[in-house]
Amino acid sequence: xxxxFDHLKAQEGLExxxxxxxxxxxxxxxxxxxxxxxxxxxxHSPRFxxxxxxxxxxxxxxxxxxFLSKYKDSIMKHLSNRVGEVIPREKSLLFYxxxxxxxxxxxxxxxxNRKKGLRILRRILRKENPDFQNLSxxxxxxxxxxxxxxxLMLEELIESLxxxxxMHGVSKEKRFDLPLISISLVIDEHAIPIDFQIYAGNQAxxxxxxxSIKRLKEKYNIKNAVLVADSALNGTKNLDMLLKEGLGxxxxxxxxxxxxxxxKSELDLTTFSKVKDEAGNETSFLYKIxxxxxxxYERKFENGKWISNKYSIDCNMMITFSEIRKNRDLSTLExxxxxxxxxxxxxxxxxxxxxxWKQFVITSGEIKANTAQNQSTSGQSDQxxxxxxxxxxxxxxxxxxxxxxxxxxxETKAKNSEPCIAVALNDxxxxxxxxxxxxxxxxxxxxxxxEEAMNADYVSSLYHHLVQIEECFRIMKSEFExxxxxxxxxxxxxxxxxxxxxxxxxxxxxxxxxxxxxxxITAAKLKEIMNxxxxxxxxxxxxxxxxxxxxxxxxxxxxxxxKEENSTSVVEPEFLFELLTGVKMPNVSTMEELRKIxxxxxxxxxxxxxxxxxxxxxx
Length: 619
Hints:
By secondary structure, the protein is α+β, with helices and mostly antiparallel strands. It has helices spanning 2-12, 20-33, 38-43, 58-70, 72-86, 109-128, 137-146, 148-160, 205-220, 236-244, 260-265, 323-345, 364-384, 391-417, 427-436, 456-464, 467-478, 490-516, 523-532, 572-581, 591-597, 607-618, and strands spanning 93-102, 180-187, 193-200, 226-229, 248-253, 273-276, 282-302, 305-321, 361-363, 422-425, 439-445, 519-520, 535-539, 545-549, 560-561. Mean pLDDT is 82; it is low at 384-417 and 551-571.
């Protein structure tokens, strides 16, 4: 990356003293070995040979994050090209998914942007008007809020800070108390990331797909590819967009979203066939392929009038059935029913978010709402009985549409103020769950104009590989500790996520090389191995240091042989060195040879390292 960053620096006419390649490499590797914040990473630099961050300040590190964010697209494209030189990647099969990460702050960017806007405006007003210099911040805030002119200036300042990024939303980790960001990720068939985007935490996953895919297609000139995604992204609008962009798709669909017609006429297991695996052997899974059509109209109010957009898809749906899945679904359902019955017996109060066993309970609030709705409907029918279709009626209908949102808000507030008590079981939902137990579906369609057909075995294998992208998110969250995020502005957040993606690419390449040598290694085990490669430093008064290997580590405990036959013993440093460099490790007899092998700028101890050694010796 050094030559690429130097080329980018010269091409863009950039001037900065720090080496972006050194900082990016250090913190990307640190996420694999020992993830921590950027401030802590700077402080821990003396623990590593050569003290790689000794010549950089904390400001340099955060400026580097902004640099990485600004040129994220160029960096990801360069990485994609370099990975393509090592591993052939046609980009004909793409896996797409979203996740979210939380911040260590209870307030979102709406709060922080307003607070920052007030701080800037107070500084401006005190500089322009000496009378405001004696006012406290609270009193001056009151003046700003009561003045239309100053309030307008404040709104303009807040708008200039950009769209809020850290926002409260639906957290996949149940951290509803903290603001989030959403991350969309695209990987290839080798589970290696291709690209990513970040969005505000309150933005729905389905709404981010259109922008992410269009950017991906333009950046990498992707054609005739098949996109694989989960059920959260299978909206008609998204699928229509994929077909218009010349892409095929294979997306999951929950059996609970089946229409009544499909549930009654298409779930007869005697009409199903057995799915075959990649080797051509029959499995216990059953499938059935039927045509699927759906049309959606979306209305938007623009320029004083309503505009209707039509989205339609005409594809195939593969319905699958698994006896194992059915037993699991029914077992979970019975547990939920028992919990729901217990809640009804003790008249438990149910909150508004109804998931798990709560979705099978009818509450007192729902009964009241249904009763009020029925009375309102009957009243409206009496009033409109015999009315003609006049312009006055149309005006009344338009007025109703405008006030519809306000009335819903009032109704919602009224519902929130009243406690909802569990009254009875929702038999309709329970029966629907029993009817759909064991079933799932995949909507699929090859790219427009493609001559290759997508058969059932191929479609089934595609969706099973979607677990790879879930593993990518799991590695970044568990091993790289991508969250909680300790950076706050958009550029720093983007740079942080980019370094996590770079670290993930490094891990995938190491795993790929290990697989070629018939070994399997996880990200967690790689971290354990790397942390075990330590040396003991002996310090003398003349600041001369001697390095000794301090810990023996048997790599065979960390690497699992894929094939036991013809396996040879693995020697820890030699094997790991060969994985990382591609060449066998030579014999080392001098410090200079060690420096050249690991490409360390200098083996001389930095001031920070010497101070740490002196403190440890005196202790």
